[in-house]
Write a structure and sequence with these properties.
Layout lengths: L4 E2 L1 H8 L3 H9 L6 E3 L2 E5 H9 L12 H18 L11 H5 L5
Antiparallel strand pairs: 1-3, 2-3
Helix pairs in contact: 1-2
Amino acid sequence: MPKDVLTANEAAELLSVGVQTILRKARARQLPAAKVGRQWRFSRSQLLNWIKAGGDAPRPPEADDDELEDFQRLTGAAASEIWDDEEDAIYENWREIYGVEEG
């Protein structure tokens, strides 16, 4: 069974990156790490979970159902203002497609 507590060198090898990258990210708190005295230590399981969760990849904001409904309502209202008559619409049935009531 592999050990769970890793040195910076071992963490770099696990993630296939340079030691300086590991240390820089540890100092910036961009990956799970703990400083023990003057040295950094890394949990193998936490590093693997960090990678599985996307690592440094930006995460899209999570929208709840109310936010999604608000977005759809606002974009529909904007389309209604832009397409103030049927000649401006790309589709003849744009109001039906986008759920915009006449008015």
